[in-house]
Inverse folding.
């Protein structure tokens, strides 16, 4: 007999990512929306989450807290809200996929502490192609070293609250580890002088409804290598998050990464 569908909770269910997650789950036979959670003052609180997402009634109300039995939760919210939600998941032994970005260092440390109690996968980007971009960035930086001037440019929609994006920061971190230096600059202005070796520039653009673009530039004397990813919509991110939920359910408590998922699924 086929296994029962995986019961999924979405935190940030009325946001852009949450709505698309619900829409995609409505098309999946192995996943079912079991809980939809958003902030306590959301104007559509109490409405059917399926109707909020435009897929018809699902029998799940948009709520301010998690009370239903679920197997795994997916969080796309805000740093402060995600910490409280993570604590709830840890208390109830619910596996947690975290796609929220913009954490302060102390918030990130607090979040990761819950991975001692539940399986947790945190990623700034769930796209398979973006995670391949990260691997290629590490390889290019390792081979070229600080002979190349490394610059990272990201472009997102005007509504994004954090800058640079979590993905851009992760790409910078990967490049810095590969060359053995971490000298990041965020944009430039004024008489900054000659560019020093080992510096990594990170630049954020905010335009229209752009779902996300990332380019890593390796500038050499006489030539240039660029590695780029462009999202055409949010589906790559959302499908990756759902794949992460499938991967995480039933696994032992620890902190997982997208590399774990990619290695497990090929």
């Amino acid at each position: 007999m086929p296994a029962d569908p995986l019961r999924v909770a979405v935190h940030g269910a009325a946001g852009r990512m949450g709505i698309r997650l619900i829409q995609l789950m409505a098309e999946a036979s192995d996943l079912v929306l079991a809980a939809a959670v958003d902030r306590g003052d959301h104007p559509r609180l109490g409405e059917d989450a399926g109707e909020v997402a435009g897929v018809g009634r699902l029998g799940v109300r948009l709520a301010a807290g998690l009370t239903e039995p679920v197997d795994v939760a997916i969080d796309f919210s805000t740093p402060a809200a995600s910490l409280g939600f993570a604590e709830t998941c840890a208390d109830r032994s619910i596996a947690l996929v975290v796609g929220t970005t913009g954490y302060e260092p102390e918030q990130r440390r607090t979040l990761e502490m819950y991975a001692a109690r539940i399986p947790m996968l945190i990623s700034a980007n769930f796209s398979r192609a973006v995670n391949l971009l990260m691997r290629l960035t590490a390889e290019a930086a390792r081979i070229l070293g600080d002979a190349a001037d490394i610059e990272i440019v990201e472009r997102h929609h005007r509504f994004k609250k954090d800058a640079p994006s979590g993905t851009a920061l992760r790409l910078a971190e990967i490049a810095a580890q590969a060359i053995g230096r971490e000298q990041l600059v965020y944009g430039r202005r004024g008489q900054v002088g000659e560019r020093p070796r080992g510096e990594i520039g990170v630049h954020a653009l905010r335009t229209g409804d752009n779902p996300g673009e990332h380019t890593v530039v390796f500038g050499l004397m006489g030539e240039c290598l660029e590695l780029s990813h462009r999202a055409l919509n949010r589906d790559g991110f959302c499908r990756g998050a759902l794949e992460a939920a499938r991967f995480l359910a039933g696994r032992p408590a620890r902190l997982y990464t997208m590399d774990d998922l990619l290695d497990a699924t090929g």
